[in-house]
Amino acid sequence: MRYYLDCGNTHIKLAAWFRSKTGVIVWQILGRFKDAESCIAFLKTKKKCTSLVGVSVTRQHELIVAYLQSKHVDVNIYSAQTPLPFTLKYDRLAFGHDRILGLAGAQFLYKNSTTLVIDAGTCIKYQILTQDGTAHGGAISPGIEMRLKSMAAYTHALPELPFNASFYNETAQTTDEALWAGAQTAVLKEIEGFVQYYNSHWPNLNVVITGGYASYLSKGFKNRYFEVPDLLFFGLYALFDHPK
């Protein structure tokens, strides 16, 4: 069985895919891990892994790769030398691997379309891929928890609050609510602004939201945009497995 690896800033994910009765690719998350050692411990209990493809924004993958190679598992990790099915209008080395994988996943799912990819994780990353297969770049802004933590870190009296998955209000009556409004509801407004901007340049824009906060944001937008939590895995599939 082929496994797919995503080593992000906050955790490591392993996944595999299968086809539904309608022929659609469905991803199964096999595990989420805090570090490489936990991931390796999980892999030691699995005998079905015969190959792995992955991407990493840290160096955690190195221990995992070394373990799998010691078991003679075929491993391919995305790098700046991996061929891409689209053209970049910027220096490839200046953009994170996860951002490029998101574009590959969007192109695979929404062929011949112009798509804005919003990856809402530790940071919020915006990227535009046009119908002609050109990646134009985008923007990066602080993520929700980063905003909450920074308000506490750079002031004397404000508390550090956890993310509140049920808060969507614009107007607050308490300090806690005001912080959530400024960190969480403000992200919704920020995203709306970027969508309007990009849509003014590229009408009929697809908007795809992925990352750890995708579900929260999608609810806030009343599901007006596509929520694709497994976009990065679709990108790995597109680059390493999909027939060209």
What do these coordinates show?
By secondary structure, this protein is of the alpha/beta class. The chain folds into 2 domains: 1-77, 2-Layer Sandwich (Nucleotidyltransferase, domain 5); 87-244, ATPase, nucleotide binding domain (Nucleotidyltransferase, domain 5, 2-Layer Sandwich). The chain is 35% helix and 26% strand. It is built from 7 helices and 11 strands. Strands 6-9-8-7-10-11 form a 6-stranded mixed β-sheet, sandwiched between helices. Strand 2 (12-19) and strand 3 (25-33) form a beta hairpin. Helix 1 (36-43) packs parallel to helix 2 (61-70), helix 3 (97-109) crosses helix 7 and helix 4 (144-153) crosses helix 5 (175-201). The longest helix is centred in the C-terminal third of the chain and has 27 residues, at 175-201.
Give the helices and strands, then pairings.
Layout: E1 2-7, E2 12-19, E3 25-33, H1 36-43, E4 51-56, H2 61-70, E5 74-77, E6 87-88, H3 97-109, E7 115-120, E8 123-129, E9 134-142, H4 144-153, H5 175-201, E10 206-210, H6 214-220, E11 226-227, H7 231-240
Parallel strand pairs: 1-4, 4-5, 6-9, 7-10, 10-11
Antiparallel strand pairs: 1-2, 2-3, 7-8, 8-9
Helix pairs in contact: 1-2, 3-7, 4-5
List keywords for this structure.
single chain, 244 residues, Nucleotidyltransferase, domain 5, 2 domains, five-stranded mixed β-sheet, 7 helices, globular
